[in-house]
Amino acid sequence: MDFFSEPKKNLCASFDVAPDKSISHRAVMFSAIADGVSEISNFLNGEDCIATINCFRKLGIKIEINKSNIKVFGKGLFGLNEPDSALDVQNSGTTIRLLSGLLAAQPFSSCLTGDESIKKRPMDRVINPLRMMNAKIHGENDQNFAPIYIEESKLKGIEYIQKVASAQVKSAIILASLYAERGTKIHEPIKSRDHTELMLNYLGADIVSSNGYIYSKPIKHLSPKKITVPNDISSAAFFIVAALVAENSEIKLTNVGINPTRTGILDALIEMGGNIKITNKKIVSGEMVGDIIAKSSKLKCINIGGEIIPRMIDEIPIFALAAIYADGETIIRNAEELKVKESNRIKTVAEEFNKLGANIEEKDDGMIIKGRTPLIGGEAMTYGDHRLAMSFAIAGFLSKNGVLVKNSESASVSFPNFFEIVNAL
Predict the structure, then answer these.
(1) pTM metric for this prediction
(2) Which of 197, 275, 206 is nearest to 241 (CA)?
(3) Catalytic one among 88, 194, 314, 385?
(4) Backbone dihedral region of 135: left (phi > 0), alpha (psi from -120 to 50 degrees) or beta?
(5) Contact present, 290 and 282 (Cβ < 8 Å)
(6) Which is deepest, 22, 90, 226, 342, by most CB within 10 Å?
(7) DSSP SS3 for 63
(8) Which residues contact 16 (CB under 8 A, 6 or more apart)?
(9) How far apart are CA 157 and CA 17, in angstroms?
(10) Which residues, 6 or more positions from 265, have their beta carbon under 8 angstroms from its beta carbon?
(11) What is the 8-class DSSP label of residue 377?
(12) pLDDT of 333-374, one tens digit each?
């Protein structure tokens, strides 16, 4: 499916964006190993999260779906069943990496696979620390790519220095640590999103984060609870940037997760001069939530790198669009992780925005963006990457002639009704 995004201004609206994908995944996974029935509301019915549900159904977990309300009939830490065939995560990196940690501790063998994109994404970052925990895990032909094969083993606790600021890697280790013979200590030099720690503790785990270290102890059970998933700040970012750049615009996004490990995009846009306010703050199911109001602003260039990057790694494609309309030259550094997302986002963001009239120089660990280069428009390829599809749709708002987003259906991975909202604005 192709979508033509036409120029727009005077964007004034208040609405909910999609539920948080990261938290939706974890709510299903952790509820499945809790002792009893958990009720999840505002669940993201996107392709990635449905893939997680399908995997757990194959592992013997009963899951009922009623629109965005989910019931998970948890069977305890050791209640999963051996699957009768490979578990297909489709395009979900979160599913394959977190499940690797959970399945490494189970008393049966299993196999994890996915689509062609997943089979190209590095799994050694998860496989290596799990092997340190005594897991019997390897990729196809003993390579570090999916399919991943896991055999029964008895895990031990470890001390691990995390080499990549990755919540997926950290979460895989933490899930395995729940079953280990002794506690596990993870040194996290740069903090990544902490949804796993917050939700597991909400369900009764014993995980402590302090001074760059995470201490996780083995447990005997998790308690089922009601979980309300906040709306996704990554999805909100597209409309925040649209409001900041478009003329005479003000957009309010309600009940958005504002976990500090995820708000790097807000910090960066505010540093650029973005008029952004957060109201109605509250804690919901262990997560901070609030309403975000963004208004038309005159943006200026900034340099970003280091610790802020893991806090906004998924939002860098839409941040690049904000930088295109800012005064001066914006530099993004230390973002090598973009190369192993659904596409090589350093390369694809630079190439496709440049086709639309931008001036972006691709660097090995990021990019240099020349500001005040208004987009003319044209065609943009998405490479099956949902964040590119949505970024180019917002680019169409701000361009002179509009943007034809090729294969735009990939947006449904994380934001199924994105284009309905775009049409309604």
Answers:
(1) 0.94
(2) 275
(3) 314
(4) beta
(5) yes
(6) 22
(7) strand
(8) 231, 253, 254, 255
(9) 39
(10) 233, 234, 237, 240, 311, 312, 315, 318, 319
(11) -
(12) 999 999 988 889 999 999 999 999 999 999 999 999 999 999
